[in-house]
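REQUEST ID: PR-0412
SUBMITTED BY: lab tech R.K.
PRIORITY: routine
TASK: structure prediction, single protein chain
INPUT:
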Amino acid sequence: MKPDFFNRSVLARQLLAFRKEFFWAGVFSLFVNVLMLSPTIYMLQLYGRVMKSGSELTLLVITLFLVLFCGVMAVAEWLRSVLLVRTGVRLDDCLNSKVFRASFDAYLKNSPYRVADAFSDLGNIRLFLTANGIFALFDTPWTPVYIAVIFLLNPFLGWLSVLFAIIQLGLAFQSSRMSIGKIESAACAEHESDRFLQGKLHNIEPVYAMGMTKNVRNRWYRLHDISLSAAGASFESQNRQQSIAKFVRYSMQSLTLAAGALMVIDGRMSAGSMIATNILMSKALQPLDLMVAAWKPFMQARTAFLRLERLLEEFPERKAEPIRRDPAGEIRLEGVTALAGNRTTPVLKDIHAVFSPGEIVAVLGPTGSGKSTLARCIVGIWPERKGRVLIDGKPVESWQRSELGPHIGYLPQDIELFEGSIAENIARFSRIDSGKVIEAAKKAGIHEMIVRFSLGYDTWIGEDGGTLSGGQRQRLGLARALYGNPSLIVLDEPNANLDENGDRSLIKALRELRAAGKTVILVTHRPGVLEVADRKVFMQSGRIVGTGEPETVIPSLRSPVYEAALEQ
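STATUS: complete
OUTPUT:
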């Protein structure tokens, strides 16, 4: 039965899957540490045999053996390093898709864990597996072996080496106790400073236009100063611990040499044994000293491991049923309640509704009534929800998202385009089908505009579609939503930035979608688009307060009741 540590998380079980690689790293460490005794044996033979006998042949033979053993030791150490590097790469390869999916889900559910943080944590774990810190873990168990050899040479120096090893372990423990809090505080402060700056750079235009740069800079200065102070305290503590450890190590080596010289003077050991003992002491304490120096990378890897473990546990890989047929697009909402972590009252409250294929449903209501939240619940992206959203009678969570996604067209209020060509954005960055791309562009009324660009559909639009106007970005987002003839189309304020021609193109596209039997849910405030709606749903304060036909709705948009709702 495996230890509980390896049963508790996906990350721990993945590490256990590389137990064979770690076993062979231990085998190579065995060769490295055993062969490290060869210089000591060589020293004893040199002083015990060669210097007394004066045999040049003996000197040649033991020197050749020493060179051979040192060569084997170097090869074993190199193989151990290569094995751990490849293990780190393979670990990254096994986990990167899981980490990406989990961090993507975390971002979708408004979790504070960022995608960049997740891959930074994965990188810290990978780097620790390839750095000197992991070698200390493999070499430290050999410290008792070196001390045992010292006992064979001289019991007094053996007990002295035990005392020095205990002192080194005490320093390592003290270093961990004093450094862990400061390392974590420094990392947290740096994360907050970077997060604040990145968030403001993402919205740089309003910051610059409204003269907020100085205020933002002053607030970032305060966070940055906290980060620098925490980092300075952390580095000061680590450097102090390393200096103390270095002083103790050098002092202990000198004291060992002095004690050995005393033994030689008293005739209780030879000069060769004295030098060999000093070498063995250095080898015995080297892994312990390396543990002190590698404590910061170890703590960073430990913190990264715990964060990734928590991320993968909180957002596990969902087992979804494969799609056996294309969805028809029937939507049924059963007691849907949408929650938000920063609000005491739900955003949506016990919503019940049915949206049928071949029907255009307009969702109306004042600002803050929950229209956009309803749209996000329908496509399955609202983070906290109770109740059920059924697509063709099956919960939206049970559908495989990679298979369901092509059958959903979604246009949010805030249109997010990505760095790439126009064709890539319309095709959702999948394999580009030129016919489908052009068809979607024509439905959105954007084809003529695209072909006027010098590169046409290959035009590069830059990050966030910054090279396009608001109306062009909205119509391009509409073309992306219509790509591939999806069964369910959810459009949130699709005509907010459209001119008269854009409105006409949108109305034409909606009529074609209805004729094709698609389910269309349209969130809008503008009466013009309501002409093509088959039914309206009026929302207020997170509830559906009425439904009806368009001819009864359009006049009511100018009624005192609706105006009062807007004011509220």
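NOTES: The chain has three domains: 10-131, 154-293, 331-567.
REVIEWED BY: pending
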